[in-house]
Structure formats: C-alpha cells, structure tokens
Amino acid sequence: MRDVLDHLQRLGMSGYEAKAYVALVAAGGPVNGYEVAKRSGVPRSTVYETLGKLVARGAAYEQRGPAGATGYLPLPPEALLDRMRREFDGSAEALRTALPAVVAQPEGHPIHDLKDGEAMLARAEDVVAGARRDLFLSVWPEELRRLGPHVRAAAERDVEVSVVSFGDPGEDGAGRVHRHRYSAPEAVLDELGYRLIVVVADRREAVVGGFGDGTAWGIYTADPAVALMAAEYVRQDIALQVLAEAVGAEEIDRLFAADPGLLRILGRA
C-alpha cells in the first residue's frame, strides 16, 4: 500500500488525494465522503475538498443517490494510468520544444559531484538514456545489474554499445561486451581498492566514479574533452582485451617485460 501511495504521489497526486483514490478503488462501489475519510485516514474536515480535486482531475466521479446523497466512484486504475501516461507524454513533448527556448547559454560545460552510489547510478542511467550514437561503459557486474535494462534499451534504438565488464555480465550486457581478463578483475580490485565505473554517451557527457568499502563517489561532466578522454580510456582497455585474447596474455606480459618504457608507463618498473 505504501508503494502504491508513493507512486501516485510521484505521478502528481497529493498525499490525501492518493489515499482517497485508493479508498475509492478498494470500496468496490460508490461511497460518501464520510466513508472515504474513515477508510483512508483523510481528515473529515478536508475529505470533500480532496474528493473535489479528484473529480476535477477526472480521477473520480460523483454519483447522486435517490435521496440526493452524493457518492463517489473512482476512474478505473487502468484508465487512470493510461490518462496519466497521455498527459505526461504530452507535457514532456511540449517541454522538449519550450524549455530550450528559455535556457540560458551556460558559461562553461557543467560538471558536478556525485556523493553516493544512488546518485551516481541514477546519473549514469540519465547518460545511458541520452545516448544517441555511441555508448562506452567500463563497469563491474554489481553496477551493471542496475544499468543493464537501460543499456539494452540503448542497443535496441541502434546506439552502438561497447562494454568492458570486470566479471561475468550475465544477462545484463548488451551490444559488444568484452570480459576484462587482462588483468584479472581480482588483481585490478587489489591494485585500485575500489570498483571503477565509467559511462560515456556520444563522447559528450560522462559519469566517472568508484565504489568501495561501503562508499561511492564520482562526478558527472558534459565537458566534451573530458568525455572524449573517458571514452578513449574505455576503448583502449577494450583494445587491450582483444589483443590479449588474440595473442595470449603470456605474450603481452613478455612484450611488457622486454620494454622498460612500457613497464614504466604501467607503473611496474
């Protein structure tokens, strides 16, 4: 019940309106304001005002009884949800045209901190959902479980998706998925001490951050230079995985060991 009320409020109903609507749906027939107040917990002093708002938005209807008493019936849930979806889609489409006309030109490319895991994954979902041409991800299965449905949706709308996964992505992967085997994920985690996440859309916006020891931190940026560097990081890491698969990890190790310059760049000298 709590989830139902929360979702109705997210779709625009007040707390009292959500409670009154649920009470009407659960009643199975017309009920008066007194019954709605008793069933829903909406105060009697405000229940008729609340029912009036539901009627005004088309979520409930008045029914006159034989003695002139007023009962209330809900708009059936499926019809209500269809109406809300139409209204939301219509508003979103109107805002798509109207909002850019009032947006001031930014003085610089936006960048902001992401102070916890929920904020970081929610912003990463935004980046994935906004991709139109290409999408690069360097991610661990723990975070890919959250992002997977959005990544699959991007692939389905013909975004070119490239993923490097530090572990088995299972069914959460989409597009071109490369397992990070060189170095092994366990070795990477031991060296860094946290799970790095990089998500880049169209090489114009990116989320970069880390998860470790019960904490998470990161940034969002729409600086195209930073987004390009993040995309190149993922592309180079994918290229290394493909090369290791083609010639073998031992051959890569031999080449590194024979070249002091490569060892120095890798921090192993």
Automatic annotation (TrEMBL):
Residues 118-208 form the Transcription regulator TrmB C-terminal domain. Coiled coil: none annotated. Pfam families: Regulator_TrmB, TrmB. Residues 8-78 form the Transcription regulator TrmB N-terminal domain. Gene3D superfamilies: Winged helix-like DNA-binding domain superfamily/Winged helix DNA-binding domain (1.10.10.10). InterPro entries: TrmB-like, Tscrpt_reg_TrmB_C, Tscrpt_reg_TrmB_N, WH-like_DNA-bd_sf, WH_DNA-bd_sf. PANTHER family: HTH-TYPE TRANSCRIPTIONAL REGULATOR TRMBL2. This is TrmB family transcriptional regulator. It comes from Actinomadura yumaensis. The lineage of its organism: Bacteria, Bacillati, Actinomycetota, Actinomycetes, Streptosporangiales.
